[in-house]
Amino acid sequence: MKRRLDQLVAHPSGMLLAAQLLQVLAWPFLDGSVVGQTLLGVIGMLAVGSAVLAVRRTPLVSRVVLVLGAPAMVLTLLEPVFRDTDAIVLASGLLHTPFYFYVSYAMLRYLLHDDEVTTDEYFATGAAFTVVAWGFAYAFAAVQVVWPNSFSSPAGFDQSWFELLYLSFSTLTSVGLSDIVAVGAHARSIVMLEMMVGVFYIAMVVARMVGLTMMRKR
Questions:
Q1: Which pLDDT value is given to residue 5?
Q2: Rg of the chain's alpha carbons, rounded to an integer?
Q3: Which of 45, 96, 117, 126 satisfies CB 3.0 to 4.6 Å to 138 for a cystine?
Q4: CA–CA distance from 171 to each of 15, 115, 139, 196, 216 (Å)?
Q5: Could you tell me the pTM of the whole model?
Protein backbone atom coordinates (compact mmCIF):
# COMPACT_ATOMS: atom_id res chain seq x y z
CA MET A 1 0.00 0.00 0.00
CA LYS A 2 2.78 2.42 0.91
CA ARG A 3 4.51 1.69 -2.38
CA ARG A 4 1.36 2.46 -4.35
CA LEU A 5 0.85 5.72 -2.44
CA ASP A 6 4.45 6.69 -3.16
CA GLN A 7 3.87 6.01 -6.86
CA LEU A 8 0.76 8.22 -6.85
CA VAL A 9 2.62 11.05 -5.16
CA ALA A 10 5.47 10.68 -7.64
CA HIS A 11 3.06 11.12 -10.57
CA PRO A 12 0.76 14.06 -9.76
CA SER A 13 0.05 14.60 -13.46
CA GLY A 14 -1.11 11.00 -13.67
CA MET A 15 -3.56 11.61 -10.83
CA LEU A 16 -4.85 14.71 -12.60
CA LEU A 17 -5.32 12.86 -15.89
CA ALA A 18 -7.11 10.00 -14.12
CA ALA A 19 -9.41 12.45 -12.28
CA GLN A 20 -10.29 14.26 -15.51
CA LEU A 21 -11.06 11.02 -17.33
CA LEU A 22 -13.09 9.76 -14.35
CA GLN A 23 -15.21 12.90 -14.55
CA VAL A 24 -15.86 12.32 -18.25
CA LEU A 25 -16.96 8.72 -17.66
CA ALA A 26 -18.97 9.35 -14.50
CA TRP A 27 -20.76 12.53 -15.53
CA PRO A 28 -23.56 10.84 -17.57
CA PHE A 29 -24.44 8.68 -14.56
CA LEU A 30 -24.53 11.67 -12.18
CA ASP A 31 -26.06 14.26 -14.50
CA GLY A 32 -29.28 14.41 -12.51
CA SER A 33 -27.60 14.38 -9.10
CA VAL A 34 -26.59 17.68 -7.52
CA VAL A 35 -24.44 15.92 -4.92
CA GLY A 36 -22.77 13.74 -7.56
CA GLN A 37 -21.94 16.65 -9.83
CA THR A 38 -20.62 18.69 -6.91
CA LEU A 39 -18.46 15.80 -5.75
CA LEU A 40 -17.00 15.30 -9.22
CA GLY A 41 -16.30 19.00 -9.55
CA VAL A 42 -14.53 19.15 -6.20
CA ILE A 43 -12.45 16.06 -7.01
CA GLY A 44 -11.45 17.59 -10.33
CA MET A 45 -10.49 20.93 -8.79
CA LEU A 46 -8.48 19.30 -5.99
CA ALA A 47 -6.67 17.11 -8.52
CA VAL A 48 -5.83 20.12 -10.66
CA GLY A 49 -4.60 22.16 -7.72
CA SER A 50 -2.48 19.39 -6.23
CA ALA A 51 -0.92 18.51 -9.59
CA VAL A 52 0.02 22.12 -10.34
CA LEU A 53 1.44 22.71 -6.88
CA ALA A 54 3.52 19.55 -7.28
CA VAL A 55 5.01 20.52 -10.65
CA ARG A 56 5.20 24.30 -10.16
CA ARG A 57 8.35 26.00 -11.36
CA THR A 58 7.94 29.35 -9.53
CA PRO A 59 6.10 30.56 -6.39
CA LEU A 60 3.95 32.75 -8.67
CA VAL A 61 2.18 29.63 -9.93
CA SER A 62 1.07 28.74 -6.42
CA ARG A 63 -0.27 32.23 -5.76
CA VAL A 64 -2.19 32.43 -9.03
CA VAL A 65 -3.67 28.97 -8.51
CA LEU A 66 -4.86 29.95 -5.04
CA VAL A 67 -6.24 33.35 -6.12
CA LEU A 68 -8.19 31.88 -9.04
CA GLY A 69 -8.76 28.40 -7.66
CA ALA A 70 -10.30 29.31 -4.29
CA PRO A 71 -13.27 31.29 -5.66
CA ALA A 72 -13.59 28.81 -8.53
CA MET A 73 -13.94 26.03 -5.96
CA VAL A 74 -16.78 27.92 -4.29
CA LEU A 75 -18.56 28.29 -7.61
CA THR A 76 -17.98 24.60 -8.29
CA LEU A 77 -20.09 23.92 -5.20
CA LEU A 78 -22.77 26.47 -6.14
CA GLU A 79 -23.17 25.77 -9.85
CA PRO A 80 -24.85 22.33 -9.60
CA VAL A 81 -27.39 23.81 -7.17
CA PHE A 82 -28.04 26.97 -9.20
CA ARG A 83 -27.49 25.58 -12.67
CA ASP A 84 -30.26 27.76 -14.10
CA THR A 85 -28.97 30.98 -12.54
CA ASP A 86 -27.15 32.87 -15.28
CA ALA A 87 -25.10 34.98 -12.86
CA ILE A 88 -23.63 31.87 -11.19
CA VAL A 89 -22.94 30.14 -14.51
CA LEU A 90 -21.31 33.28 -15.94
CA ALA A 91 -19.16 33.89 -12.86
CA SER A 92 -18.12 30.23 -12.88
CA GLY A 93 -17.12 30.42 -16.53
CA LEU A 94 -15.21 33.67 -16.08
CA LEU A 95 -13.22 32.23 -13.16
CA HIS A 96 -12.72 28.66 -14.32
CA THR A 97 -11.57 29.66 -17.81
CA PRO A 98 -8.46 31.64 -16.77
CA PHE A 99 -7.82 29.16 -13.97
CA TYR A 100 -7.66 26.16 -16.31
CA PHE A 101 -5.71 28.09 -18.94
CA TYR A 102 -3.14 29.13 -16.36
CA VAL A 103 -2.92 25.55 -15.12
CA SER A 104 -2.24 24.39 -18.68
CA TYR A 105 0.46 27.08 -18.98
CA ALA A 106 2.09 25.89 -15.74
CA MET A 107 2.04 22.28 -16.93
CA LEU A 108 3.53 23.23 -20.29
CA ARG A 109 6.36 25.01 -18.50
CA TYR A 110 6.87 21.82 -16.52
CA LEU A 111 6.96 19.80 -19.74
CA LEU A 112 9.37 22.10 -21.56
CA HIS A 113 11.76 23.05 -18.76
CA ASP A 114 14.46 20.55 -19.81
CA ASP A 115 15.33 17.93 -22.41
CA GLU A 116 14.62 14.90 -20.22
CA VAL A 117 11.33 13.02 -20.44
CA THR A 118 10.03 11.42 -17.24
CA THR A 119 7.03 9.17 -16.71
CA ASP A 120 5.11 11.98 -15.03
CA GLU A 121 5.80 14.23 -18.02
CA TYR A 122 4.11 11.68 -20.27
CA PHE A 123 1.07 11.91 -18.02
CA ALA A 124 1.36 15.70 -18.03
CA THR A 125 1.16 15.72 -21.83
CA GLY A 126 -2.30 14.19 -21.66
CA ALA A 127 -3.36 16.09 -18.54
CA ALA A 128 -2.49 19.48 -20.02
CA PHE A 129 -4.57 18.61 -23.08
CA THR A 130 -7.64 17.76 -20.99
CA VAL A 131 -7.17 20.90 -18.89
CA VAL A 132 -7.25 23.03 -22.06
CA ALA A 133 -10.47 21.27 -23.10
CA TRP A 134 -11.98 22.07 -19.70
CA GLY A 135 -10.96 25.72 -20.02
CA PHE A 136 -12.63 26.13 -23.39
CA ALA A 137 -15.77 24.35 -22.18
CA TYR A 138 -16.14 26.94 -19.42
CA ALA A 139 -15.47 29.70 -21.97
CA PHE A 140 -18.31 28.28 -24.10
CA ALA A 141 -20.58 28.29 -21.04
CA ALA A 142 -19.83 31.97 -20.41
CA VAL A 143 -20.41 32.82 -24.08
CA GLN A 144 -23.74 31.01 -23.98
CA VAL A 145 -24.90 33.20 -21.08
CA VAL A 146 -23.76 36.53 -22.55
CA TRP A 147 -24.89 35.71 -26.09
CA PRO A 148 -27.85 33.29 -25.92
CA ASN A 149 -28.45 30.83 -28.77
CA SER A 150 -24.72 30.78 -29.58
CA PHE A 151 -24.68 26.98 -29.90
CA SER A 152 -27.17 24.81 -31.74
CA SER A 153 -27.82 21.08 -31.55
CA PRO A 154 -30.71 18.72 -32.37
CA ALA A 155 -31.91 19.28 -28.79
CA GLY A 156 -32.09 23.05 -29.19
CA PHE A 157 -29.95 26.07 -28.26
CA ASP A 158 -29.49 25.70 -24.49
CA GLN A 159 -26.53 23.34 -24.13
CA SER A 160 -25.54 21.73 -20.84
CA TRP A 161 -21.97 22.03 -19.58
CA PHE A 162 -21.24 18.39 -20.43
CA GLU A 163 -22.41 18.97 -24.01
CA LEU A 164 -20.10 21.98 -24.23
CA LEU A 165 -17.26 19.83 -22.92
CA TYR A 166 -18.03 17.32 -25.68
CA LEU A 167 -17.88 20.14 -28.23
CA SER A 168 -14.59 21.30 -26.72
CA PHE A 169 -12.95 17.89 -26.99
CA SER A 170 -14.16 17.34 -30.56
CA THR A 171 -12.88 20.80 -31.55
CA LEU A 172 -9.54 20.51 -29.76
CA THR A 173 -8.83 17.11 -31.32
CA SER A 174 -10.04 18.31 -34.74
CA VAL A 175 -12.18 15.19 -35.21
CA GLY A 176 -15.26 17.26 -36.04
CA LEU A 177 -17.65 14.61 -34.69
CA SER A 178 -19.81 16.89 -32.56
CA ASP A 179 -23.45 17.47 -33.46
CA ILE A 180 -23.26 20.77 -31.54
CA VAL A 181 -22.54 23.74 -33.81
CA ALA A 182 -21.39 27.25 -32.99
CA VAL A 183 -23.86 29.53 -34.76
CA GLY A 184 -23.13 32.85 -33.05
CA ALA A 185 -20.23 35.04 -34.18
CA HIS A 186 -18.64 35.20 -30.72
CA ALA A 187 -19.00 31.46 -30.24
CA ARG A 188 -17.40 30.78 -33.61
CA SER A 189 -14.44 33.01 -32.78
CA ILE A 190 -13.75 31.03 -29.58
CA VAL A 191 -14.15 27.75 -31.46
CA MET A 192 -11.63 28.90 -34.08
CA LEU A 193 -9.15 29.77 -31.34
CA GLU A 194 -9.53 26.28 -29.89
CA MET A 195 -8.94 24.74 -33.31
CA MET A 196 -5.63 26.61 -33.55
CA VAL A 197 -4.64 25.61 -30.01
CA GLY A 198 -5.34 21.95 -30.80
CA VAL A 199 -3.22 22.00 -33.95
CA PHE A 200 -0.32 23.81 -32.28
CA TYR A 201 -0.43 21.49 -29.26
CA ILE A 202 0.01 18.42 -31.43
CA ALA A 203 2.62 20.10 -33.62
CA MET A 204 4.73 21.59 -30.84
CA VAL A 205 4.22 19.74 -27.55
CA VAL A 206 3.47 16.17 -28.62
CA ALA A 207 6.00 16.28 -31.46
CA ARG A 208 8.68 17.52 -29.07
CA MET A 209 7.95 14.79 -26.54
CA VAL A 210 8.12 12.13 -29.26
CA GLY A 211 11.37 13.58 -30.59
CA LEU A 212 13.00 13.62 -27.14
CA THR A 213 11.87 10.04 -26.51
CA MET A 214 13.41 8.87 -29.78
CA MET A 215 16.67 10.66 -29.00
CA ARG A 216 16.83 9.01 -25.57
CA LYS A 217 16.44 5.54 -27.12
CA ARG A 218 19.34 6.01 -29.54
A1: 45
A2: 18
A3: 96
A4: 25, 30, 13, 10, 33
A5: 0.87
- Spatial distance between the Cα atoms of 137 and 168, rounded to a whole number of angstroms: 6
Helices 12-30 and 119-146 pack at an angle, to 10 degrees, of: 40
Q: How far apart are the first and last CA of the chain?
A: 36
Which phi and psi angles does 38 have, rounded to 5°? -65, -45
Distance CA 136, CA 72 (A): 15
Residue in 80, 93, 217 with CA at minimum distance from that of residue 144: 93
Distance (Å, whole) CA 213 – CA 172 = 24
Query: Rounded to an integer, what distance in angstroms lies between the CA atom of residue 98 and that of residue 69?
Result: 10
Query: Which bin fits 156, alpha (ψ -120 to 50), beta or left (φ > 0)?
Result: left
DSSP of 127-141, one letter per residue?
HHHHHHHHHHHHHHH
Q: Is 151 helix (H, G, I), strand (E, B) or coil?
A: strand
Residue 176 — left, alpha, or beta (φ > 0 → left; ψ -120 to 50 → alpha)?
left
Q: Which of 6-15, 41-50, 170-179, 195-204 has the lowest mean pLDDT?
A: 6-15
